[in-house]
Design brief:
5 helices; globular; about 35% strand; seven-stranded antiparallel beta sheet; single chain; alpha+beta
């Protein structure tokens, strides 16, 4: 397995590690979430530019690999990466993910949401906000590019979620 494959497996395990349960029986194929909002096709280029990312840098999944029960799309801006995740996991399941750190209650566009970092992020520069929609949960995640000057990732994640809100499912 190459470095890319290893990174994808580790990232997927960390991101959804707390969103799982033990089920007795035999293994079957990955659970696919049907009807999830697709951020790559559902967010306009003008909205992406409005939050400071380049639509031409779009990447589906994590390093191009799709993760079961998620629709993930990322874009790069000056010094940051913005990702929008759509999942059928509940907000409680996202909050219970043991890789999430410093979970706090916040507001996105006037509604209840949670904000969290990643336990494995020694820099403290990755931050996500998540809230419930009519099809599950949406997560907006900000991460600085390697070697870039630190930004206020949580403030930027909240502002980005508010700016993108008109184009996202309710």
């Amino acid at each position: 397995m190459g470095v890319r494959g290893a990174v994808v497996l580790v990232a997927a395990a960390l991101l959804v590690g707390g969103c799982s349960s033990t089920v007795e029986g035999h293994a079957v194929g990955a659970v696919e979430a049907v009807g999830l909002f697709d951020p790559c096709s559902g967010i306009s280029d003008s909205a992406l530019r409005h939050v400071g990312v380049d639509p031409a840098t779009e990447e589906r999944g994590i390093l191009g690999v799709q993760i079961p029960r998620f629709e993930i799309c990322s874009w790069k801006g000056t010094g940051i990466s913005l990702s929008v995740w759509s999942t059928d996991y509940s907000l409680d399941e996202v909050e219970a993910n043991t890789n999430n750190a410093d979970v706090t209650t916040v507001s996105v566009h006037g509604g209840p949401a949670i904000q969290f970092g990643q336990r494995d992020d020694d820099t403290g520069r990755i931050c996500s906000v998540a809230w419930t929609t009519n099809q599950g949960v949406l997560i907006v995640r900000i991460a600085p590019d390697f070697g870039e000057t630190p930004v206020d990732p949580c403030g930027l994640a909240a502002k980005s979620a508010d700016k993108l809100f008109p184009e996202l499912p309710r």
